[in-house]
Amino acid sequence: MKKKSVLLVFVFLLSLTLFAQTGRRLISFDFVDQQIREILFAFSSYAGISIIGDDTVTGTASFQYNGANFEQAFDSFLLTSRLFVEKNTDRWIVSRVRITANENGLIIDSFDATPSQLVDKLTRKTNTTILQDILPTTRLSLHLETATPLEAVELFMKPFTDFTVLAGANYIQISRIDPGHFNTMFTRNDISRINAMSNYKQIDATTYGYMLWGFVTSESKTDNYPIIDIPASTWAVFPADPDDDRHVGVVWKELYTRFYGEWLPSSEYEKANSPEFEIYCGTPPKICCELWMPIIKKV
Q1: Nearest to 248 by CA among 206, 290, 220, 218
Q2: Which residue in 88, 135, 159, 195 has the most C-beta neighbors within 10 A?
C-alpha cells in the first residue's frame, strides 16, 4: 500500500510541474469539447487574470497546447475558436465581435454574432443611439470597413430585406417592414402593389429616371432588380378625386400643376431632391391616384 501511495503522488506532481532542460516551465493545455466559458475560467485561474466572455461567447471548443508561453497559448486558443479579446488593466474581455476605429472610420469583425449583438457592440463603441425592433437570430460572420455607424448598420442588415434602416437627427432606427404597414402610410388603404417613381436618379443635366416599383418584403424575389432605399422625408400629398373617371394622364398632369403652380409658390417649403411617388389606388376599372412630393422647409 505504501509503495502505491508514493507512486500516485509522484505521477500527480509530474503532471503539474514539467521542466525543460533549460529550466523553463512548460505549459500544457488539453481541452476536448469543453464549454468555452469553462476554458476561459481555466485560463483565468492559471494566469491570475480576470478573463470573461461577453454575451456573444457560447458553445464548445477543443484545444491543445504544449509550450512555455501563456499569452501564446491564449492567443492560439482565440484564433482557433474565432474569438477576439480586449485587454484592460483589470480584466480581459473575450468576444465574437471586434470594433476598432481609424482615421477612415470603423472596422468591424464578427464571427457568428447576431444582428442584435452587433447593434449592442456598435452602440457601446460609438455611443450611437440605435433603436430596433426584434431582429433576426441569424448569426453573421463579416468584415466591414466603413465610415459611419449608419453605414455599418445598413451593411450588416442588408441580407434582411424585411427590415429597413432609417437615420434620424441623432439616432438610427431599424424597423421590421410589415406588408400591411404600407397601406397605413398613404391616405387610402387600397394602394396598388405596383406604383411609379420619378427623380430617383439623375441621368444627365435634364433627364431623370422614371421606374415602376413594388415594396420589398421577405417574400420578394429581387434577383436582377435594383433596390432603392428611400430616406425619411416630409411629403406634400395630393390625392385625386376618387370619382374622377378622366384618363389617368390628364389626372396626373392636374396633380403636378396643383403642386408646382398653386401650392409650392405660396408655401414655406421647396421641393427636396428626393424621389417622387405616383401612387395608384383602387381596383380596375375604378382607379385613382396620389402624388407624393418630397419637400423641405425654406431656409
Answers
A1: 290
A2: 195
